[in-house]
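Appendix B. Chain record.
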Amino acid sequence: MSLSFPRLAAVTCSLALLAVGIGFFIPGASTPPASSTATAEKAEQVRSINRQLSQQPAAQLTTPGELPPSLQGASHGIRLQVDGNGMLQLNPQLLQLFDFYFNAIDEEPVAKILLRIHNDLASQVQGQALAQARDLLKRYLDYRLAMLDLPKGNSAPTAEAFAQHLQALAQLREQHFSADENQAFFSSDVSQDQLMLGQLRLNERGLSPEERRAQLSLLEAQLPPEQRAARQQVSRDGDLYEATEAMRQAGASEEAIYQLRAQTLDPQAAGELQKLDAQRRDWQARLQAYAQARNSLRQSGLSATDQQSAIADLQAASFNELERKRVIALDAEL
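C-alpha cells predicted for this chain:
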C-alpha cells in the first residue's frame, strides 16, 4: 500500500494545513499559537532538530522503531537515484517521501518523524547524494513553515482570491527551490491548480450546465496527457461505482456486477474487484460476529477486569495484529 500526503496543490489542502498552523509540525500543539513570536520559536525548534540530525553521520543515526499505526503495512515506494557522478537525481515524487512520514504528525513527535526521514535517506544514498537529499529536506521544511505566513483564506474562495494565493505560492516555491526542482516537484500541481482556478472562474460566470460542461472540457484539454487520463479514469470509476451500487440496491447478482465491470474495465480488473468485495463482506461478517460476542461478554456479569481480559482474548482469537488495531479503533462504534 502506498500513501502520500498532499503538498498543498489544491486550495482545500492549503487551507487544511494553514488551519492547524505550526501545530502541524510541533508535537502537542493542537491549535495555532496565539502570537507570531511563539510560532517563530516553535518553527525554529523544528529547524534545530533537523539541523542536528543533518550533522550526524548516517551510521550514528538511532533507529526510530516501528511505524505508527496509520503507516504500518504501508510504503511510499520512492527509490532515490544517483547519476554517474554520484549526484542525486531529481525525482518528481521525491517530496512524497517526506510527506509519507509527515502524514503521521498527529501520532508521534516531529523529532521522531524527522529521524525516520533521515534514516530512510541514509539507507538509500550516501556521500554527496545524501548531502543533497538532506539539503532538500531542509529547504522543504523552510517552505512548509513559510506557508504559515500565507493568507488564510476560507473554505469557498473566490477566483480572484485563489489566483492571489497561487501567485504567492509560486513566489514561495521560487524562493526555496531551483527552476529544475520546481518543474520536477510542482509542475503537475500547477496544472491542477490552474484547472481549479478555471473552474472557479466558470462558476462565477453564471453559465448554464451545458455551457459549463463545454467550457470545462476545454480546460481539461489543456492538461498534460497523463492528467487528462487520470481525470477520465476517476470519472469512469465513479460512474462505475454508482452503477454497481444501484445494481446491488436492485438485487442484482454478483455475476451481473462482474459482467458490467468486465465490460467497463477488463476481466482481470473485474475479477480483482470481485475479490475485494468478498474480502469486505468477510470483514464485515467477522466484525459483526465479534461485536455480538463482545456484547455478550459485557452482559455476562464478569468483573470489569475479567471482562476486559476476556474481550482482549476474543480480539486475539478473531483478528491478526494489524486487524486488532483497526478493531480497537472501531470498537466504540461497533
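Further analysis of this model is presented in Appendix C.
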